[in-house]
Every structure is written in structure tokens, then in C-alpha cells.
Amino acid sequence: MKEYVILVNEKDEQIGLMEKIEAHEKALLHRAFSVFVYNEKGEVLLQQRALGKYHSPGLWTNTCCSHQREGETNIEAGKRRLQEEMGFSTDLEESISFIYKAPFTNGLSEHEYDYILIGKYNGEPNVNPAEVAAWKWMKLEDIKADMEANPEIYTAWFKIIFEKYYAHIS
């Protein structure tokens, strides 16, 4: 099944649909979301992308992220993808949104109008191995320090969205 993204302008107004891979090849602005799930200790659930992913395989990133489908709210999309990737559901709320661009080594680029979604969960995820190789809980300060020490183990977009989100909550 082909996946489509919602093309938007800089005001997040929908201007069309395009197959996901084509939008990433052309670096066209499209709607996306990034989920940060916290536990009761204030740690964030990170995932290591599966080794079979077509870009950024094996790199660490936020709890999950993806693209809204046409007619789907940010919250509905976040809950759907959280279930598909991490195998659990929880309430989510919107935080900040912003535009960013992140090129990949394979010639593709993310150019996204991204919504940060926040949730709480204290159980163990039941990850989809086609999506996720591993997972761990980390405090924000530890993520920041590790990202500075080992930037190559994190996805390009996570480095950008983490910096914006961290600045927002600090």
C-alpha cells in the first residue's frame, strides 16, 4: 500500500498529497508529528530504528514519529503510530510545532511542519521489530549530553526536534 503525506505551506494549510518517498526525494514541506512519551521518573522513551529501515537504520530517536493521514488529527495520528511501532496506546497532547529540514546520507530529505506530541506511560513497550530494534528510557539531560558526545548515533531529525523541544521546556 502506498503511503501519502500531506503537503502544506508555511502556515500548515494543506496544498496537496504526495507519495511519501517522492516528497522526501523532492524535499517538499509536509505535515508530520513527533511523539515524546515520559514515564513517572521523568524519563523519555527512545527507540532505536530497525536495521531494515530505508533511511537512518539503527539510529536512536524519539518514542515515535511519522506523518498524519488525510483527515486524521495530530493526536489520532500519534496514537495510531505509537500503537504500530511501540505496541501501546496512551493519551497524547500537543506541545509546540515548527518547520525543519534534515537531509539524509541517501539523498532523501525531511522537510516537515512538525507537531510535538507528549504522553505518559509506565509500562514496557511491545515493539514492532520491523520498526524498532531496541528501546530505552533516558532523562532529558542525559539525552542532551549523549547527543553532544555521540551525535552520530541519533537521527538527523531527532537532533533538531530535541533541541527545539528542550529549549521550549527549559
Descriptive key words:
single chain, 170 residues, alpha+beta, 4-stranded mixed sheet
Quick overview:
With 170 residues, the chain is of the alpha+beta class.
Molecular structure report:
The chain is an alpha+beta fold and 170 residues long. It is built from four helices and nine strands, in the order ββαββββαβββαα. The strands form three sheets. It has a four-stranded mixed sheet with strand order 6-3-8-7, sandwiched between helices. Strands 5-4-9 form a three-stranded antiparallel sheet. Strands 1-2 form a two-stranded antiparallel sheet. The N and C termini lie far apart (41 Å). The mean pLDDT is 95.
Task: Please outline the helices and strands.
Layout: E1 4-8, E2 14-19, H1 20-26, E3 30-38, E4 43-49, E5 60-61, E6 64-66, H2 74-86, E7 92-103, E8 109-120, E9 132-139, H3 140-149, H4 156-169
Average pLDDT score = 95
Number of strands: 9
Alpha plus pi helix count: 4
* SSE ordering: EEHEEEEHEEEHH
Side-by-side strand order of the widest sheet: 6-3-8-7
Helix content: 25-40%
Give the biggest beta sheet.
4 strands, mixed
Distance between the termini: 41 Å
Would you identify the regions where 5 or more consecutive residues have pLDDT less than 50? none
